Amino acid sequence: MNMNPRYYHSMAVVLALTSGLAASVPDKLTPAAPGSIRLQGWVGEKIELSIGHRVMAQDVEKLIKPFRDRKEENIGHWRCEYWGKWFTSATLGYAYQPTPENRALLDRAIKDLLATQTPDGYIGTYRADKHLGIWDVWGRKYTLLGLIADYDLNGNPDALKAAVRLADHLLKEAPPGKVNLTATGADVLKGLAPSSILEPIVLLYNRTGDGRYLELASDIVASWEKPNAFLPHGLQLEKQAMNGVPPVQIASPKAYEMMSCFEGLCELYRTTGEQRHLTAAIKFAESIRRTEIMIHGSGSNHELWADGTRLQTEILEQPVETCVTATWMKLCYQLLRVTGDPVWADQIEVALYNALAGAMTPEGNWWAYFSPLSGQRVPSHYQHQDVQMSCCAANGPRGLLLTPNWAVMGRANGVAVNLYSAGSAQSRLADGTDVKLFQATDYPVNDTITITVNPSRPAMFSLALRIPAWSRRTSLTVNGQSYPCQAGTYAEVVREWAPGDKVVLQLDLRGRAVAAPSGAPQFAVMRGPIVLALDDRLVKAQDVAAWLVANPDGNVDLAPSASKPAGVWMAFDVPFEVRPSHFFKHHQIVLSMCDYASAGNQWSSSNLFRTWLPQPLFLRNIYPADTWRLMCPELAECPTIPDAGNVHRADWKPAAKPRTPN
After folding, report:
1. How far is 436 from 455, CA to CA, in rounded Å?
2. Can you give the pLDDT at residue 659?
3. Judging by beta carbons within 10 Å of its beta carbon (0-12, 13-18, 19+), is residue 144 exposed, middle or buried?
């Protein structure tokens, strides 16, 4: 692949900055090179479907037209974000699948966008008298991210030049110290959306060395602590995060936009080395984990922080926006890179297999707006009919296509494996030794992962294997020799590796009963990173009440179901007890539960599901109906997967599978 080496910085590898720039802080974990990861199995299929049926099937002209027309003026117009969201997904897709057709699509998208840039440098969808209003700066953020991604991936100097002109135009309209960007935009968001331009501004500084951009970035963060037109004490994002304030109590609790600001703060930490930026980002993310993340790996209600960890057993009106899921994964990815702490990979994995995968339609052509834990799956409607796009259909692929970046990563003294999936990875050590890893597994269906290690020559290095926090019984051997493992850490094997060395890892996939965080008499069932759910194709409504049967250690005995409906990835028989009388006639039954992502995946009112299980579980009223009315109160009818989402590119075909050693 002819890709610019600067791509490594954009996709998260921090390069040494040129002379005269601030020293960067090296990441503890760095992603593998573009194209060096090939994923098979369930995850690989999802990625292929998303690239072929959604990202590279995009009608680019529909995304460009609003930039040409520039008619945006009110709060309901955020067409300014779609091109950048889609394009950043497309660069990730092209890095994974670098075909000439995909490259041609990216080149055309850049060329057509740059044709809309005004003589003074503006690229956006707002007319001149509405600049800095509502979503304008938010849209410029996404445009900058897209332009920088193209420069990093393809070495396109025109993309960087356009990004510089766009940023310079912003500096003229909102010079630091004279215009407070954190007091612009939609008043209900209190400046969160424009503040999030912090991320691309820092990235642009790192590529140009222009100190004006670092000054703007520093001014944005400093302005968070100053009074503004929206808030008497300012946003106080960094201060409140440092103090452990729950996200729902910080400024405007708009989940997606708030996390986007902390993504920028991570980039500023890399550039300046100021520890308070990283400390605030870590504390903020820890607070999200503690108070907002639900069992399927994401959070929010009505797109807002909502004390979701505690409330998740209830029927929430608009739970878990896909934009929130993708952004939570991206924030965790930032923290995984800078800290090297596998807790963030654990978080990404749960979100990937559950909240994110459950939001993608089976063909990969469209996405949900919200992802409930019970009821009916509902695809997002077109939020802008003329563009034929939804914010979540644009953003969902960004979370999914990030997977190759964190699956296998580089470390100072070796390689770290974060995702266990059939496929292959290539990495280059500091001494120039090339290392190829081949994984043979169908995890998380089964518990065993076999990794063949093939260095280009015998070499001493570390192979770090993520041991998830839930894996209490773990076995690890290398060529038959046992190595110790501890849940929630990396099992690090330092040895001289030779071609053909075999690593066998066995994780603990026993079922686990998870008690409701609120203390309500409800349980959910997990198996490894997978949340299980009841589905009305597997369990029908019936006049019986049942109690989940768990062992004294909290584990649940699961057995693979003898049969499962088409389209269901995995299903297990789960023991329940029926208690018709106080002491007498108690007996066990089994109810089949499937993985959360498969539950309700017919996307219709005739296919309902349930995750949290009240104790006792009355099966007559097991599945909440008509939940689409809560998720889409402004619509007269339940949305369906849009026709445009079913238009597959005629020339698309799956990428070649990696060769697996004998």
Report:
1. 6
2. 41
3. buried
Identify whether the C-beta of residue 41 lies closer than 8 Å to the C-beta of residue 421. yes
Alpha carbon 321 to its chain centroid, in Å, reads 12
Assess contact for 643 and 550: CB atoms under 8 A. no
β-strand pairing of 571-578 with 545-548: antiparallel
pLDDT for res 65? 96
The answer to whether the beta carbons of residues 51 and 401 sit under 8 Å apart is: yes
Distance CA 165, CA 523 (A): 55
Backbone angles phi, psi at 186, to 5 degrees: -65, 130
Name the pairing type of β-strands 511-515 and 30-31. unpaired
Tokens matching residue 473 = 């019984």
Predicted confidence at residue 595, as pLDDT, reads 98
**Regions of the chain short of the pLDDT cut 50:** 1, 5-23, 644-652, 654-662
96 sits in which H/E element: helix 82-96
- Whether the CB-CB separation of 163 and 148 falls below 8 Å is answered with yes
- Which pLDDT value is given to residue 197? 98
DSSP state of 32: P
The distance of Cα 562 from the centroid of its chain, to the nearest Å, equals 33
- Give pLDDT, residue 12: 36
- When computed from its CA atoms, the radius of gyration of the chain, rounded to whole angstroms, is 24
Amino acid at 54: R
- Cα three-residue angle 579-583-586, rounded to 5 degrees: 35
Q: Can you tell me the distance from the alpha carbon of 18 to that of 392, in angstroms, rounded to the nearest whole number? A: 37
Give the CA angle between residues 485, 489, 490 to the nearest 5°: 75
Beta bridge partners of 577: 547, 588
d(CA 344, CA 314): 27
Return d(Cα 227, Cα 180) in angstroms, integer.
10
Domain with CATH 1.50.10.20 in the chain: 39-409
The closest of 288, 281, 308 to 370, measured between CA atoms, is 308
User: Which residues of the chain form CATH 2.60.420?
Assistant: 412-443+447-506
The torsion angles phi and psi of 647, rounded to 5 degrees, stand at -85, 105
Q: What whole-number distance in Å separates Cα of residue 292 and Cα of residue 16? A: 36
Q: Is 412-443+447-506 CATH 1.10.10?
A: no
Do the beta carbons of residue 186 and residue 135 sit within 8 Å?
Answer: yes
Spatial separation of the C-alpha atoms in residues 332 and 552, rounded to whole Å = 33
Q: For the chain, percent helix, then strand, then coil, each to nearest 5?
A: 35, 20, 45
Question: Do 55 and 93 form a contact (C-beta atoms < 8 A)?
Answer: yes
Q: Supply the pLDDT for residue 4.
A: 56
Q: Specify the pLDDT at position 385.
A: 87
pTM of model > 0.90: yes
pLDDT of residue 24: 84
State which fold the 39-409 domain adopts.
Glycosyltransferase (1.50.10)
Q: 450 and 465 in contact (C-beta within 8 Å)?
A: no
